[in-house]
Amino acid sequence: MTRVIYIIGDGIAGLSAAIALRMSGYGVTVITKESHGGSSYVSKGGIAAATSIDDSPQLHAEDTLRVGDGLCDVEAVGYFTGKAPVVIEELIKWGFEFDSDLRLEGGHLKRRVHHKTDETGRVLTEFLLQRAVGLGVNIVNDELLALQVRDGEVRGFVTRNGGLISNVDYVVLATGGYAYLWQYTSNPPTNIGDGVAIAFRAGAVVSDMEFVQFHPTITTLDGETMLLTETLRGEGARIINDDGERFAFKYHEGGELAPRDVLSRAIYMELMRGHRVYMDLSGIEDFEDKFPGVNDFLRRHGLSKADRVPIYPGAHFTIGGLRVNVRGETNIRRLYAIGEVADTGLHGANRLASNSLLEALVMGMNLPRYLEEPWEGPRLDDGMLVQVGLRDQGSSLSIDEVRRINWEHLSILRSEDGLRKALDLYGRLNTAAGTKESNAALVSYLTAYAALLRNESRGVHYRVDYPSKDNGWRRRIYFRVSQ
Ligand SMILES: Cc1cc2nc3c(=O)[nH]c(=O)nc-3n(C[C@H](O)[C@H](O)[C@H](O)COP(=O)(O)OP(=O)(O)OC[C@H]3O[C@@H](n4cnc5c(N)ncnc54)[C@H](O)[C@@H]3O)c2cc1C
After folding, report:
1. Labelling 26: which of 15, 261, 376, 482 has CA 20 to 30 A away?
2. Residue 255, domain extent
3. What is the tens place of the pLDDT at every residue in 295-321?
4. How far apart are CA 368 and CA 21, in angstroms?
5. Residues near ligand 1 (Cβ within 6 A)
6. Residue 40 Cα, ligand 1 centroid: separation in angstroms?
């Protein structure tokens, strides 16, 4: 009898897994609370892979490790950078057409970003969805509410419309991250950490929750938000303040191509000093051909590349999530997590641009290879494990209130005082209820707790009261629910 695998989430991680599993003969049902809802559909720049003659997986690994600031899992970095060229080849075999040039993004020392104009995510998601449906993947609109786990093994799950589905062979969580939980964000409203909260309640270990990556260049024009992709800066866009100063060089020798955390802080501080900050696109050659998506967006709002575009930083990618090994195995047998909901250790304390679509694709495409092999689970020996209790009473806050609190106390510049306030607020809320508000509260509580414990600055986590890196903190913070 064909075994049916349930995948929750239809982003690039979920869809690539669905296709690979279907091609290996499994029955596949994908459950998603909103079709085209996740980050994948709006992702822009592309997929990092060393495929050119002057590049190598080793060089890609070195860039990943340098940006990851001492917290990358070295084996995971070797695995993903090694598999990157294979994934690109596989996508091409499936019929996907990348543009012929490779782009440069911040933190990369080589041009290695594979892309489809400036709308890689939209075009690739549509391509994968069509292929999945063509192969007979069953796609269902529904929402995961809870997991059923017994004796350390996942047995079933509950969805809003379908109720309890039991006796399942495998569940694959591909529910994305939680960066929508900040008031200023590049993420869509689906990304509020459902998968992390639901699996945590069921006993899954989470890690690296303090590491929330902020993207430096987001713009909102007439209420429409757009991420101004990193590749714009690789192609010559400049960042200036209202005095016309290219201030990024004051903060980092790389200027506009400094790592995202440095540039986000630079722009944030400039805004705090009362300046306005803009992106100047006028130096990009062939702008209309290279960036049709940005060009259309500007035109819709009455601007062109000759105009300065106001920008601000916002929450963009959550490095933390469900602790897994590179196969996607959590500490709960037969429960996998892939893509942004998972934390393999690839990104360390800071994610190198275009490594997350790569991670999602590698995990998705390789899943069938591992399903029939003995379960290994993730290693948890490189950090401290903290037990956290759930609260089944107390009030709740709306998602918008959580977003405001996270922006105020848990964003680009953090301090003990602000983190304690956030922890205190979230510590009084109901984190057991299984509603989306309780998911948001739980995920934010864990983020604030980890950020408070880590009294150093590393990667994307910046503490104004501990502005330096501390070698004693070269370890992870793991959380597990107390029984
Ligand atoms: C604007 C933007 C640009 C980006 N550009 C790049 C880039 O160029 N390169 C790169 O590498 N990365 C980029 N990223 C990051 C990258 O897009 C994401 O890390 C990646 O797409 C995550 O894919 P995913 O499949 O894990 O999750 P997502 O694509 O976020 O999909 C999650 C899915 O889970 C579903 N879901 C969530 N909760 C539930 C639930 N309770 N029940 C059912 N379904 C649920 C959602 O509906 C959604 O379908 C970008 C991100 C953003 C926001």
Report:
1. 376
2. 215-315
3. 999 999 999 999 999 999 999 999 999
4. 6
5. 8-14, 31-34, 37-40, 42-46, 120-121, 143-144, 174-176, 186-187, 190-191, 194-195, 227, 316-317, 339-341, 354-357, 360
6. 4
